Amino acid sequence: MSRLILVTGGAGFIGSHTVDLLVARGDTVRVLDALIPPVHQAGIWPAYLADGVQRIHGNVEDPATLRDALDGVDAVIHLAAYQDYLPNFSKFFHVNAAGTALLYELLVAEPTLRRNLQKVVVATSQAVFGEGRYLCPVHGVQFPGQRTSAQLEASDWEPRCPVGGEPMVPQATREDDPPRPHNPYGISKLSQELIALNLGARYDIPTVAMRYSITQGPRQSFTNPYSGALRIFVQRVLHGRSPVVYEDGMQLRDYVPVWDVARANLLALDDARANFRALNVGGGKAITVLDYAQVVSRGLQVPVSTEVPGRFRVGDTRHILSDISGLRSLGWEPVHSLEEAATAYATWAQAQPGFRDYSEQGFRTMTDQGVLRDAH
């Protein structure tokens, strides 16, 4: 039976792919999106958004708009978020934390909004873990804090054991490991997660938090500096430039294609076993950033030579990997390749009006704001 699903941020990257799957299986979809730069052209609905969806232009911080969006829905997939590397600290919390609190405030204050409501799925992030889990050969499992500016300026990239200073080996971070976010985005996402899971449990609103790893694929904004490695690498390669990587390029990541993330969202929506859990959504394998540049090279069938200028971003983690056994136990598995995601992103991006290499502009903005720095 068709349900009415509200997807906040549904015109965005992960949101629009999730909307596609919902529409394809026969659900009625309502999208609430602020449509603001740098992700969107201001106030303009993207052409890729599925036909037939109900569209509300507004933001999750506005009570009247959010209340209208919630009216009559059977479930909510709450993806609206503020993402950036810039030091707009309060903005992260206004959108990510306060917007989520307002969602539950309205659901609790107005019982008619909950009459049909079956589930709320909330997008959080792998960033809630900060550096995540490491293994020290002397002191065992450790969860180090953030690296200092002095350490990074000295090109000393690796976290050390917080007990004895020994080198450590990065491990996949488990869902029950302690969160230790250290950048404003990660802190706001942990706040969002705590709000959603605790208020959901208190007021009997089935809730799931989805901790996405670095998601890649088509519709990822090419004007948003936060969009990350795939955006930068593809833009530069297609314009005859070398990919630029931060630090020494040996950072480990678990990139995940967007189609797999969208499938995970629907699984969380449908499966009661996910209720009141925080689930890691990752790619299932570790890869260095330098190796990821070669993945992009293979996906585009263009040889690349990577630049490693020794820059670093304030707030970046060194290594972060997610243990995805929780989702796997529910029957989910990442099935798409990173090469497939890179090829699809390049094909999509080149077909968009205004596609060009925005990487230097992004570098300048982050440098001017003190986010991107050179090691001495």
Keywords:
3-stranded antiparallel beta sheet, alpha/beta, 376 residues, Rossmann fold, 2 domains, 7-stranded parallel beta sheet
Helix content range of the residues, please?
25-40%
Query: What's the total count of β strands?
Result: 16
CATH class category name of the largest domain: Alpha Beta
CATH architecture of the largest domain: 3-Layer(aba) Sandwich
CATH topology of the largest domain: Rossmann fold
Mean pLDDT: 94
Global morphology: globular
The succession of helices and strands, N to C, reads EHEEHEHEEEHEHEEHEEHEEHEHHHE
Radius of gyration from the CA trace? 20 Å
* Unreliable parts: none
Overall structural domain count = 2
- The N- and C-terminal alpha carbons lie at a distance of 61 Å
Question: Helical segment tally?
Answer: 11
Could you state the oligomeric state of the chains shown? Answer: single chain
| Secondary-structure class | alpha/beta
- Percent in strands: 15-25%
**Main sheet: strands, sense, barrel:** 7 strands, parallel
* Strand order of the biggest β-sheet: 3-2-1-4-5-9-13
